[in-house]
Target: Glucose-6-phosphate 1-dehydrogenase
Amino acid sequence: MGSSEWSHRSDSFWSNDNVAETGCLSIIVLGASGDLAKKKTFPALFHLYCQGFLPPNEVHIFGYARTKISDDELRNRIRGYLLGERSSSPSEDVSEFLKLVKYVSGSYDSAEGFQLLDKEIAMHEISKSSQEVSCRRLFYLALPPSVYPSVCRMIRKYCMNKYIRYFPADLGGWTRVVVEKPFGKDLDSAELLSSQIGELFDEPQIYRIDHYLGKELVQNLLVLRFANRFFLPLWNRDNIDNVQIVFREDFGTEGRGGYFDEYGIIRDIIQNHLLQVFCLVAMEKPVSLKPEHIRDEKVKVLQSVLPIKDEEVVLGQYEGYRDDPTVPDQSNTPTFATVILRIHNERWEGVPFILKAGKALNSRKAEIRVQFKDVPGDIFKCEKQGRNEFVIRLQPSEAMYMKLTVKQPGLEMSTVQSELDLSYKQRYQGVMIPEAYERLILDTIRCDQQHFVRRDELKAAWEIFTPLLHRIDNGEMKPTPYQQGSRGPTEADELSAKAGYVQTHGYIWALPPYRNLL
Model:
């Protein structure tokens, strides 16, 4: 199905769905006893509750999993995760929120558990509903993708919103499904998974969540690019030499070795998180801010990416990775990768996009680094000091800064690199930046699919990386060992330099000293 067809279907669905923003809302967390639900999903729901987005007179939350525990046992399991570092909510709020949480135990492929779940949801809807409101059901699959098809079949057969049949159509009422990455392991598996879910739900009912799209600075990208006049003439191959999108962690797999070894750093980080950022950096201006117009442009830029060349890939595996008893002794799985993407279109022809991700490195950060070309006819002879760069620090310490050359204060005409700096904790003191999962769950309730991955977008992303991944899986490409706590393989820096990236020596962006006091 083409992007125009998705757009048509979604616009019609949007106009009907967007009416139902009030009324009975049932949020069902499947996999409620797992780590993702405890650490991310339930805390996000709690913070939405504290901010008034989940009114207790409308909302009920159901946990569902195979583990046989009581309501109170689930509440006790998640209680400690609700009051995290960023929470200023009193303990009374936790207690009131937990009253909204109920637990149902059952398997993921049998009718009995889902019939019981439907019965519990219906009891809540009957108690909350009247002819003036609509009922909404949001299913959050905090589960491994292998059980998505069976769970979706059970939802479709036993747990769909039945009140749509009784209430007038203009009151809305809906059922939506949120699925977590990974969406397959390659193009074929992703297409199979999409087909299996697509047979049960329409595309506007499916929310493929990538939490990077909920990050504050990622959501700022379209505003930066298209709401600021001075970026418009600069954002092209005439002025930009290269773009780096970087994800670095200073720890290894830490008990997740078995899971990670099945996927590797490209599937885990680059093919989804970094590629979504890549789309927002490189896409053309959408016709409007409607979700389908934005997603249409993301698909177009993905379809313009040229096949990845082996000589523009560096793979690494940190020393000690195979010591994990859950990792095979001869594992070929990369824990580090640098991949250069090239776009064949008028705006970006010849500009390398360097996507880099790794574990057990010397720092933890995620950032976008747009490096501009050298100044022609440089009369100050300051090329060695470094190029102009626009840097967007996604995490930690959200910031954006422009590196530029200025006169060194004093009597001599000498130059030095400095920056124009927007550090969020300085500029927006006292403002709590929401967690990504909070934004994205709220978007699903509001029927806003802008920050979710559409099926044709997912297909285009896998088309880019599947050939490379198959060569790695077949042992045709081997990762280079690198020391824990290093920058990664030296070949990666050499590849970046060969692509045109010029590293600035002697300049370090300094965190404002007051930041740690806030």
